[in-house]
Design goal:
The chain has about 450 residues and is an alpha/beta fold. About 40% of the residues lie in helices and about 15% in strands. The protein has helices at about 15-30, 55-65, 70-80, 85-90, 120-125, 130-150, 170-180, 190-195, 205-210, 215-225, 235-250, 265-280, 295-305, 315-320, 395-405, 410-415, 430-440, and strands at about 35-40, 50, 100, 105-110, 115-120, 155-160, 185, 230, 260, 285-290, 310-315, 330-335, 340, 355-360, 365-370, 375, 380-385, 385-390, 425. Helix 3 packs antiparallel against helix 4 (about 85-90), helix 6 (about 130-150) packs across helix 7 (about 170-180) and helix 10 (about 215-225) packs across helix 11.
Length: about 450
């Protein structure tokens, strides 16, 4: 329990204090009837036209194992804020509810429920912080990565971002979200092992510097990795390219280097020079990869200007979603004890009752769960009485779903610029009537 890492033994305490103070009050008042909470994102960031739903598997793992450890309860006792009877009740609390969710890799839009939790009030309340944290992180990462992949126009994308991510949990889970959105591989070995994502990497400048001579560094590296991608900008890009050409002459038919990488400089002009030199030397099969503070905007500019680039290593900007580093995620009560609930706060009004999203060619309709509307229902029951209904989906299955979903969007939504005509999301007449009736009670 004293672990300095978040794990199954202490994750119940990864919550805001007010979740526990509310829980004690519910306990004291005997309130624990069935509650319905919706998790949604209030608005699209200015640079976004859509989201990619992600993070569900992390949430389901957490819910299946949810429990307070004895050490955690004793820590809460030491705070002097909670009654003994309430703390004793925490020993037995588990998540026993149902979960409805939009499958990972699905394209979604503002105010559409990604997740609906139906559970006894205390169980549904205490999970709020962790569930929001996981869905927000993964959906933010997947949505950013989808834009990077789109900008690359079919070129290879490798995630280089773990060293710039905000902590180890993000460092492990964001590569999974990237992969779901179409990123080809990650440099993160642990993410590769845990999620089965392809791993990829080249070398660092320090490897070149460790030798007295750049060419000798190349010679030594290809002894171990004949198909390596060689980093050619440690000292001088032109000389680095010449060293690759010289190495090819030395090795003859034994030369199998697959590519070179540039990590600095004017990438558009430099890659053109490198391509010309390699082609003149008969090395047309050697590909050119680039990195260096790339994002979807710089990738789009490079390719629009005709830069002869075969692949991109994308780090900090994708890792942190630098232009939209937070999503306005909310987890709000929609029903309690069979009565629909509504929040009327200015600019933060919610929709009452249990809901469903109906997807049609012309757009989406957010309606009540029991409405019979046209379209494909997006919210699927994934957990009953605290247990998964199906084994975890593979990242590849989610990736296939994401690819298919993005293929249905018009180019105006896939563009990096805000769409002049946003995707249409309507609220059903029945849901609007329910909202109006509650609002005026």
């Amino acid at each position: 329990m004293n672990s300095r890492w978040v794990d199954d033994s202490n994750s119940a305490l990864l919550t805001d204090l007010y979740e526990l103070t509310m829980l004690q009050s519910y306990f004291a008042e005997g309130m624990n009837e069935t509650a319905v909470f919706d998790l949604f994102i209030r608005r699209l960031p200015p640079t976004r036209n859509y989201f990619i739903a992600c993070g569900l598997e992390h949430v389901l793992d957490y819910l299946e194992d949810f429990a307070f450890a004895k050490e955690g309860i004793e820590y809460l006792r030491s705070l002097g804020r909670f009654s003994d009877s309430f703390l004793d009740s925490l020993h037995d609390i588990r998540f026993t509810g149902d979960v409805y969710a939009v499958p990972e890799g699905t394209v979604i839009f503002a105010n559409e429920p990604l997740l609906e939790v139906v559970a006894p009030l205390r169980e549904a309340q205490i999970i709020e912080t962790f569930v929001m944290n996981q869905i927000q992180l993964a959906t933010m990462a997947a949505s950013k990565a989808a834009r990077v992949v789109s900008a690359a126009r079919g070129r290879t994308i490798v995630d280089f971002g773990v060293r710039r991510m905000h902590g180890a949990d993000a460092g492990l889970k964001a590569p999974r979200a990237f992969y779901i959105s179409g990123v080809d591989a990650t440099s993160n070995v642990l993410a590769g092992e845990v999620y089965g994502i392809p791993v990829s990497g080249t070398m660092a400048h320090s490897y070149i510097q460790a030798f007295d001579d750049e060419l000798e560094a190349f010679r030594r590296f290809v002894r171990s990795y004949p198909t390596a991608i060689l980093l050619i900008d440690t000292y001088d890009i032109k000389k680095g390219t010449q060293h690759v050409i010289q190495l090819a002459r030395e090795l003859g038919s034994g030369f199998h280097v697959s590519g070179v990488r540039l990590d600095s400089g004017d990438l558009a002009n430099r890659t053109a020079e490198v391509r010309s030199m390699l082609d003149a030397a008969g090395l047309r099969q050697v590909k050119i990869f680039v990195s260096s503070s790339l994002d979807e905007y710089s990738i789009e500019r490079l390719l629009t200007n005709g830069a002869p680039i075969d692949g991109f290593g994308v780090g900090a900007h994708m890792a942190t979603s630098s232009d939209a580093p937070v999503l306005d995620t909310a987890y709000k009560l929609a029903e309690y004890a069979g009565r629909p609930k509504l929040k009327l706060s200015e600019s933060k009004m919610t929709l009452p009752g249990r809901k469903q999203i109906f997807r049609n060619p012309a757009g989406d309709i957010i309606g009540l769960q029991d409405e019979h509307l046209t379209g494909e229902p997006l919210l699927i029951r994934v957990m009953t009485e605290g247990k998964r209904l199906h084994p975890p989906e593979s990242p590849q299955a989610c990736r296939d779903r994401c690819r298919a979903a993005l293929a249905t969007l018009p180019q105006s939504l896939l563009s990096l610029a805000p769409a002049e005509v946003p995707y249409r999301v309507d609220i059903s007449s029945e849901l609007l009537r329910l909202k109006d009736r509650i609002q005026h009670v």
